[in-house]
Amino acid sequence: MTTTAPTRTRRTPRPAPGKWHGPMREYDLAKEFTIALVVIALLTTALAVLFSSPDEKNVTLQQWAKNDGNDFVATAAGELAGTTTSAGYGAPYNTNGDGQSIGPLKLQKWAGVRIPVDPPNDFVVTPLSTISGNSALTDALNQWKGASADQQTKWAAAYADALGKAPDGDPTKVTASPDYGPVPVMTNSLEQLTTSGQLDSQLVDSSTGFFQTNYTKPLLFLADSAYLDDFAAGQHLHGDQWGMMNETGNFPGQAWLWLYTFWYQLPGFTDANSTLGANADAIIWAIMMVLSLLLILLPFIPGLRSIPRWIPVYKLIWRDYYRTHAGGRS
Asked: For the chain, what percentages of helix, strand and coil (3-state, to nearest 5) are there?
């Protein structure tokens, strides 16, 4: 009896799970990378040329005194009179003002004085005390230091008013008067000191060690001037100009700041004499913190987290998939 072995059918091996069975094509990764690199480099260069910020040099006290000496003298007189922004700013520099607040929350005042700055002495009197060999200045400083605070304020305020009435604010066109006390000699000497470039280095805080990077005092002094304000206006940096730019370098400006500067354009914030305008920085900061917190917590907030499902933009992005595989279903 003859037996035959059972016939075995050859089975086609099943594809390994996860293996791609769709259409395939050759792909040159090196070529793709090179093309992407060149395109991005060209786009970056073109956008930098078209939308870059100007590469402005640092604005110094010496530059200010040389280019607009009248404004420098007027600002120095204002520092002595205590009428500048820095003199009455409040915390964190001094206690001369309550600062900005959010309703009953006086955040600036609560923070306290962390960076002590006394504008009359720090910006004017102390730097002048380093000058030797000038008898007129020495007498003026002694007269100033020997007077009461009220008398000092009267002298400086009277001279500041006289400068405001003089043609072009020119100190040389102010008629001499004992009502000004030693202030004209002091401000004129400070202008000469600044023109030489010495004040720029004297106002930098040297307590930071070898690398002196604390420019708080020269920045505050410069910020009190009309010179810096005019410079900013020329660069379209005022709040009502939606000003945004980098400090240095020919690169696109900080476009992300538009959301911050947007609030300054709204009625109320544009009026510096209103409650909103007077406290704009603090209130807008609070608004941005709330918006940032909402963005961070978005995945956990019922309703808000469902917005992407209600507005199915993802179907537009992945339209090929939903058209051929999902039948349009989500």
From this structure: 60, 0, 40
Q: Distance between CA atoms of 249 and 48, rounded to whole angstroms?
A: 10
User: Averaged over 294-302, what is the pLDDT?
Assistant: 89
State the Cα–Cα distance between residues 199 and 191, nearest whole angstrom.
9
Contact 271, 277 (CB under 8 A): yes
> Would you place residue 161 in the very low, low, confident or very high pLDDT band (cuts 50, 70, 90)?
very high
Q: What is the Cα–Cα distance from 200 to 131, expressed in whole angstroms? A: 15
Residue 115 identity (one-letter amino acid): I
- Helices 183-195 and 135-146, packing angle to 10 deg: 130
Output Rg (C-alpha) for the chain, integer angstroms: 33
The b-or-e profile of 251-285 (16+ CB within 10 A means b, else e) is ebeeeeeeeebebbeeeebeeeeeebeebbebbbb
* b/e code 38-70 from CB counts within 10 Å (16+ = b): eeeeeeeeeeeeeeebeeeeebebbbbbeebbb
- 256: nearest Cα among 281, 223, 286, 292: 292
Instruction: Say if residues 117 and 77 touch (Cβ distance below 8 Å).
Output: no
Least Cα distance to 224 among 89, 129, 326 occurs for 89
pLDDT in tens, 25-66: 777 889 999 999 999 999 999 988 887 766 677 889 999 999
